[in-house]
Model the fold of this input.
Amino acid sequence: MNNKGRLAEMKAANYLREKGYCLIEHSYKSRFGEIDLIFEYKNFIVFVEVKARGENSIAEPREFVDEIKQKKIISTANLYMMQYKVKLQPRFDVIEVFLENNRIKSIKHLENAFSL
Done:
């Protein structure tokens, strides 16, 4: 992962913590893929994909979480939930981080960006 990606994940984690989310895991990896951030929030376990894009990007960051990426995240989340016997309702969110001159311009949180 590049510096922009690390910065975006760090800012996204801080953003969600400020909203009352409790960070459980960062960069969880399995044979299926990786989940950037895993939080507990109310009665949910929230699997978060963080996407950062610069001002010259031709697409919204969420557009890079395509069906293939979603399937990998869901498979990884299912494994995580079985491995740790999670009883909470799963939710899949996307955090869009918009960059300008290599700095964070804004953050957008998309709850329930996709589902099982």
Notes: The chain has a mean pLDDT of 93. The first helix runs from residue 3 to 18. The longest strand covers residues 89-100. Strands lie at 22-29, 34-41, 44-53, 89-100, 103-114.
